Amino acid sequence: GAVVSQHPSRVICKSGTSVKIECRSLDFQATTMFWYRQFPKKSLMLMATSNEGSKATYEQGVEKDKFLINHASLTLSTLTVTSAHPEDSSFYICSVGQGDQPQHFGDGTRLSIL
Amino acid sequence: GENVEQHPSTLSVQEGDSAVIKCTYSDSASNYFPWYKQELGKRPQLIIDIRSNVGEKKDQRIAVTLNKTAKHFSLHITETQPEDSAVYFCAASPTGGGNKLTFGTGTQLKVEL
Questions:
Q1: What would the DSSP string read from start to end of B34-76?
Q2: pLDDT of residue A7
Q3: Which helix (H) or strand (E) holds A58?
Q4: Are the Cβ atoms of A102 and B97 closer than 8 angstroms?
Q5: What is the reported pLDDT for A1?
Q6: Residues of chain A contacting B46 with CB distance shorter than 8 Å
Q7: Distance between A109 CA and the closest CA of chain B, angstroms
Q8: Which of A31, A49, B61, B103 is deepest in the core (most CB within 10 A)?
Q9: From the CA of A8, how many Å to the nearest CA of chain B?
């Protein structure tokens, strides 16, 4: 069964709207979750590492004020795309991994900004 | 940081043939190498992984080989079937899934009847 639950699966909204995406770890308590972005026919690019109870670690070039990450519990991390614009349209995927265990992905969220 | 290169970007094979996808990595500290299969619009799914203390791992029609000295690893799919058609990504990490993964650029595999 699914290890990671991600919602919503699809969002279409107007420019300037803020969008929140949830990622839940179903099988275990996750101190660390990861957020990726994927453009059409491209690879997965790590945006940030979400750390439970502390600030997220952002990859170089990712605007932390644009992509707000909150990891308030051991099973939930959220990504908020603030004041979204058409260039933010993409496929956002979260993942969960622990120690030397494999990393498992959510179903992804397709974000379309009009 | 780590850099993972993947080849080829597209691969077409006839059903029943074998398919091989190759990746190289740059960071000698990487010790965990998973492979993911992603169908259009869906999440990446882990199909096999290998650690640096092992040179080869096999799971039915899928196998992965690792040459740590040369810093390259390969995915081998035998007896390919149409349902194997998808995008395959290799990745590298220092430890395991609890650490961030650096992905290759992906290989679009098409298995033709």
A1: EEEEE-TTS--EEEEEEETT-SEEEETTEEEEEETTTTEEEEE
A2: 97
A3: strand A57-58
A4: yes
A5: 58
A6: 102-104
A7: 10
A8: B103
A9: 14
Which pair of tokens denotes residue B88?
A: 């395959």
- Residue-wise pLDDT for B66-101, tens only, equals 999 999 999 999 999 999 999 999 999 988 878 889
Closest CB to A108 among B43, B98, B101: B43
Instruction: Give A-chain residues touching B45 at CB under 8 angstroms.
Output: 105
| B7-56 tens-digit pLDDT | 999 999 999 999 999 999 999 999 999 999 999 989 999 999 999 888 99
Would you state the pLDDT for residue A31?
87
Most A CBs within 10 Å, among B99, B105, B107, to test the A interface = B99
Q: Is A37 helix (H, G, I), strand (E, B) or coil?
A: strand
Nearest CA in chain A to B96: A100
Tell me, yes or no, if B44 comes closer than 8 A to chain A by beta carbon: yes
Instruction: State which residues of chain A have pLDDT below 70.
Output: 1-2
Separation CA A46–CA B45 (nearest Å): 16
Output the pLDDT for position A99: 83
As a whole number of angstroms, the distance between CA A48 and CA A95 comes to: 11
By C-alpha distance, which of B39, B65, B37 is closest to B52? B65
Pair of tokens at residue A50: 């979400």
Type of residue found at B60: Q
Are residues A43 and B104, on separate chains, in Cβ contact within 8 Å?
Answer: yes
List C-alpha distances in Å: B72 to A38, A53, A64, B37, B95: 24, 37, 34, 19, 17
